[in-house]
Amino acid sequence: MALPVLVAVDGDPDVLEEVEIQLVQRYGSDYRVEAVRDPDEALQKLTELRDASADVALVLAGQSSTGTARGELLDHVRRLHPHAKRILLIAESAWTDEPTANAIRASMALGRIDYYVVRPAASPDEVFHEAVSEFLLEWSLERRLVPQTVHIVGEQWSGRAYELRDTFARCAVPHDFCLADSEKGRELVAQAEPGIAEHAAERPEPP
Fold first, then answer.
1. Is the peptide bond before 39 cis (omega within 30 degrees of 0)?
2. What CA–CA distances, in Å, run from 112 to 86, 89, 98, 116, 119?
3. pTM
4. Residue range 91-147, pLDDT digits in tens
5. d(CA 6, CA 84)
6. In CATH terms, is domain 5-142 a member of 3.40.30.10?
7. Residue 111, Cβ neighbours under 10 Å: how many?
8. Boundaries of every domain in the chain
């Protein structure tokens, strides 16, 4: 079975090399790592991966490496690999520069990126790896690749659903949440044991 892919893009060769080393050392046994300097080359690589039906988990792109001749690289990522997490690699000083910080916030608010992460400064950079591991866990949960994941289905403001989510989060148990009236929620309830499905369907009417 082909390994999922992590793609790193940065025009700074030193930054790209450090990111590639960190990704390969920590995740190389479970993920294939592709490191590319040029965003247009990265777009070509992502297209080839799409054509090969490869599963791209993360795309980490430096702030100066998101523009291509055909538009924003991370916009193309959403089209080519809709499940991939789009991560902006930022310098540690990014938040001290107001225009840069505002641009990052705007990108997140507009849905052009999913997250940001400070590029690694040492080897191993555990802060960097903590963030990447969280991104990969979220991707795996959404792709239903974590077999022991607990799926919580309920109303958005349900006290019981909140209690369950809080408990599982504090115990570091893989879980996800979806609304009972969403397509995914209805599908999960339909797949549940009859008694569970009947219980889930018995929601109190709103006052």
1. no
2. 8, 14, 19, 11, 19
3. 0.69
4. 888 888 888 889 888 888 888 889 999 999 888 899 999 999 999 988 888 876 555
5. 9
6. no
7. 11
8. 5-142, 150-201
